[in-house]
Amino acid sequence: MLDKNGIAKRIAREVKDGYYVNLGIGIPTLVANFVRSDISVEFQSENGVLGMGPFPYEGEEDPDIINAGKQTITTLPGASFFDSATSFGMIRGQHVDLTILGAMEVAENGDIANWKIPGKMVKGMGGAMDLVASAENIIVAMMHTNKAGKSKLLKRCTLPLTGVGCVKKIVTNLAVLEVTDQGFKLLERAPGISLEAIKEATEGILIVQDEVPEMEI
Amino acid sequence: MLDKNGIAKRIAREVKDGYYVNLGIGIPTLVANFVRSDISVEFQSENGVLGMGPFPYEGEEDPDIINAGKQTITTLPGASFFDSATSFGMIRGQHVDLTILGAMEVAENGDIANWKIPGKMVKGMGGAMDLVASAENIIVAMMHTNKAGKSKLLKRCTLPLTGVGCVKKIVTNLAVLEVTDQGFKLLERAPGISLEAIKEATEGILIVQDEVPEMEI
Amino acid sequence: MIRKTVADAQEALRGVQDGMTFMLGGFGLCGIPENAIAELVQLGIKDITCISNNAGVDDFGLGLLLQKKQIRKMISSYVGENDEFERQMLSGELDVELTPQGTLAEKCRAAQAGFPAFYTPAGYGTEVAEGKETREFNGKMYVLEYAYKSDFSFVKAWKGDEAGNLVFKGTARNFNPCMCGASDITVAEVEELLPAGSLDPNEIHIPGIFIQRIFQGTLYEKRIEQRTVRKRD
Amino acid sequence: MIRKTVADAQEALRGVQDGMTFMLGGFGLCGIPENAIAELVQLGIKDITCISNNAGVDDFGLGLLLQKKQIRKMISSYVGENDEFERQMLSGELDVELTPQGTLAEKCRAAQAGFPAFYTPAGYGTEVAEGKETREFNGKMYVLEYAYKSDFSFVKAWKGDEAGNLVFKGTARNFNPCMCGASDITVAEVEELLPAGSLDPNEIHIPGIFIQRIFQGTLYEKRIEQRTVRKRD
User: Fold this and answer.
1) Subunits close to D (at least 3 CB pairs below 8 A)
2) What is the pTM of this model?
3) How distant is the alpha carbon of residue C109 from its chain centre?
């Protein structure tokens, strides 16, 4: 079973040379740590920066330079700042090549829910609805099951949706899956995880064809 | 009868302190020369400059700094440059207080035609359609009659329209007129011009109430 | 040059009244109009509707207005990190309208640029689109969203000049430019107020035409929400 | 950092073909992509549709493509100052679509920012709105205009860096920023091409994400259309 860093590490392999990437809060943020150093990638944060670098050295934090998670950051050569309308112009206009975000639920039809638990938690959707409605290439990073052990890969989402039919790929602690017209197609197993364990943890239709290899990470 | 400078001079009196003003090509351009020096006014040109100054001194022309008439210009302290979408955002968003432009025809209902003579001249509307559709305060600067002696203040425009029901005020070589629901209301006569002469040169309904004073310019 | 300078926040906020709708720039606590917020607290204006991406934290930013129960309605995209907010929302004291972040930005920009409404794919098929008009373009579904109408915009810039021209710094830019000229009156507070002619006309982010009043702010705290650092090697 | 640099106009225009639609920046002859135009002449690409505010003059700018009859259709707001243009238009050799200037700018910006269409008051009640959908908002009539689709955008900036970031100068900015990222491929030519990190991230007008190829142009003529000056006192 993968830990959060393991999930991030596997997703990092989906990041290709020349990609502009938007990383959501949580596991997605960790992806930046594992991207190969021999490819060129720029990270966009929807609050208005392209070309994000690592966290600043202690004492060099600038309150005017943060990411969408409100963390202090730095910028790399070639970076730029811009306003929120321009930022979402980049997103809506599909100039960002890859969006990686977390989810509370994903359905076999590609629906995603990640912003609200009625009566319990309402923090808001932030930029997630814009991102999932616009991006051509969306990868969800999440645990396969929730804290109560229930599957997060469902036939239909039970929580209020963030977007419809938009998720293309999911990387969990157990598996890599593709969303197809027929359901979740199992592409890879996490190291040491059996097909049975994945089947058990997946409520939605799971399509298993041929041998399912273990992930390389 | 006023000449072009006279018309510009009279219109300059409509420019108030704190106004952002867009000047069209031709007579409107001359208005800048006659604005009182004790008021603060900024001129916008739709190709992307606010705070236009006078023409440059000989030898100081910069090909990268022009107005919408493609003339080399200078900028004053407080000026800014911006792109065309932002420029028309200013215009459409009614941040420009006064638009002064020329016309080939104006109708008694406020319609204006100034961009095309079918089969003869088609230079295009440039920014005129955006300006007349958006501006709250539009003054037309033109001769009262065309070269053939025909009235340019009509019951209905005969040329393709630039905008509908948008003109508020007209300053010609003969008169100052306001466009009202009832027709052209005569506000002022040019120095030495009789009521009869104005009536004769106006095809549309001319409303004359009380004494009509001579312009002060 | 048309002068937009006023002496201070007090003069800049002249005319604000109970029940008004305000746009406030900032993302989290980054780039928020600290002086305008402090003055709104001071004035005790009530029943405000705030259009702002976030609602501050418990004891800073818009949280200060929430503490005093001056806000009737929040229009935001993200309202986490604020216990008092959550309490007021759950108890029904506070009306909350959550809007996708890109939609929020564009509803401001639409107001600035004279667009009555626009089509965006964000929120299609979700509760955000409930009751809204939708339409297909090129095989994709879009939601019709309307421009905001508001009484005052309060924005914060890095540098500004007497003519109201603004320059922002880093990600403190965020929603501030989109909100300029998007309300009846736009009030800009800046860290450094310069004479006209001090800013390069090429480097101005927001031309002064969008600003009605500008003043130099004081005592900027610029609180950091998530101080993340790395150790030196 | 993602490198966008190519060696020259020849490499930058790889892939252009007969029958394509191009956006070209500039207002009059100010800020036009001189190198890209020269290369299009050189390549002899035919049946082009050009989206550009103006059509150049007889012997410069897009006038060079008109001379060689490479343009099938012009989409512009103003096409005066060009006898060859007028001749081709009146003879029916050239198809011309005239569009209000603000509409033209926004049709580009809409393509850049992923808006399929927008409502503008410009042209309502005129022949420009004939056959187009109209709609009332707040008592005012608007026309529905669609985003452009095009194959290449050719823009000209003052300074640029390897990452494709652009800075424009004066009114040579005009339509150039709106056209970046509004076509499948955006080619930027700059007067000065700098290493990444040379431009202040605050002062970048167009982030490199909107640009696919950038090169340093040569031999800019920057012809002035109306040389207006005043005498020294």
Assistant:
1) A, B, C
2) 0.97
3) 12
